[in-house]
Amino acid sequence: MIEFLANWLAFTPVFAVPLLLATLGLIVNERAGVINLGAEGMMLCGALAGVACYIEFGESTAVGMTAAAFAGLLIAFLFAFVVVVLRADQVVTGITIVFFGAGLTGLIGLRWNDTAIAGFRKLDLGFLSEIPFFGKVVFAQDAMVYLTIPIAFGVWYFLFRTRAGLNLRAVGENPQAADAAGIAVDAYRFCAVAAGGVLCGMAGGYLALAAAKIWVNEMTHGRGWIAIALVIFARWMPGRAVLGALLFGGIEALIPRIFAAGWPVPQYFLQMTPFLATLAVLVWVGVAGKRRSAAPGALGLPYVREDRW
Amino acid sequence: MPDRAAAAPGRTFRARRFGRLNLEVRQSIGRFKHAAFIAFGLGVGLAISVAILLAAGVEAANIFDEFVVLTFFDRLGLSSVLIECSPLILVGLSAAVAFRVNFWNIGIEGQFFWGAIGATVIAIFDVGPPSIRIGLMLVFAIVGGFLWIVPPAIFKIRFGVNEVISTLLLNYVAYQFVLNQIYGAWQDPRDRFPHSEAFDAAERLPLLGWEKVHLGLLISLVAVALVWWLMQRSRFGVYMRFVGANPHMALASGIPVAMTIFLAVGLSGALSGAAGFVMGAAQEHRLTGTMAAGYGFSGIMIAFLARNNPAAVLVVAFLIGGLYAAGQSVKVFYSLPQALVSLIQAIVVMCVAASDFLVRYRVHWLRGDGR
Lengths: 309, 371
Description:
Chain A is mainly α. In chain A, 73% of the residues lie in helices and 0% in strands.
């Protein structure tokens, strides 16, 4: 039982990190007032770019993650151009980005399909990793797990402890007022979407390089959407996003453990659980009535200054 | 005022120097201009799509042949367009009905699956006499699709749960359930492949006698007529428009807002279920794990391009049917993946959505004075 628990907890961060990276990206996005439903597509592009560059350029996870971030950034530029500069409908455009990402990766990903890779390796921190139970859970993760902690802290610090973060939140809350105060609304939104894209791309890259260790079509399998729901669950707070990601990462990590333990649970029903749990959380947040108060005021609304010319 | 700009560097200085974009919200736009802007967006989208096809290795000379001549002006091609467009019409209507009341039904694939599941239950357990079985399958498919959208509809109306996420999550749940059935209890006992056993002759939609075009086309056309009447001519249609445009005003005017949303959304689920029935009973002749793939997004895009107008859905679905049919042959001859169809649709939608910019705003470039 202890063995099972240790294995489960040790695997949780691998599933929690992609969810957390994507959720943090979406929080930055939505705090600036842009709802990004295209997370799934950005993650797919990141995953493919990560695996492709990992394979082609010397099997380096750093190269893979950089490529993944860059792929997410490129898709985010496209999304930002359409919704921030051209002020198109954010819901339609976001959904389109998902299928754009799925179509694009399906078309150009054929070469790297189903190629197993070594990917991220667990770090060996010497005697720390030897500690029974805790060593395996806390001190034997891969480098990205440890790197995600400062990223989460950085997002929180940026949003709530810097002037730029304050400006960004003002843009998402009330762009008219922000504009009147001299904040460049479009520039903030564009950069927020770009930053969100980088984090979503990294989420996808990590998913492919650490959790799946392979590229297959549509491999993100709904995790982008779970991240969108986690933003609501986290009430747009980075700290709560960490909790949410650990919770849902834990659910996802439990599934392969249960298979490995050979318990007689119907496989496909088990694989429904992350989606049903997400839905349950959304309903719970809705029933508790916390949603409206926490969402940025101008979420999803394009901003036009309507000045004279 | 160059002296002030020099005295106050920073934002003011830069804004003056490079100039900036100014958007004037249009109060109205002429019909011709409106159409021209959308045609422009469509043209850009198609141009990018052609460029992608070229990059993917389709010869330039063949693109027109494959996508237009052999698809729409060839007996076999046209018949396969008509076959492809039957379920597309139904999912397009499904999206249009829901979008009209501002309910983003992204769960079309899930409802499609439950429609197919409903039809499959009747077919493989031989429920009812063979003479009415196909009708019974349609009814069960409609009920299946309807039931699958009830939870997100209630969550949205009662608790304000974002329907984009809730309907989408249920797609994955429906998909896992289908896998559970086709790898388990319903697996084909004949070939042991992961799909249900084939439907009998009485459980398939009859052919209309022109190539392989089947009754599904007629079902879709009847659905277009019914939905057109409902949305454009009936009292309920007025309610839907009102609720979609301004739910607070509608509530204040005494319109049953919650019920209108619920019924419209339920109809949306039922139409997606019917699409699953057409797919199962006329094309796949069984329940498969891949039968719904792509229909969710296609439905959304058809409704978007048709501006939620049922008559326009018919036209757009016909054209997308052409894309599907051509995609099939391109897939065979050039070994390109099905993802290509998804990509082309996404590009076209994005370009048309972006062209709304010109429809909505009059754009000026204000020149800076520091050049």
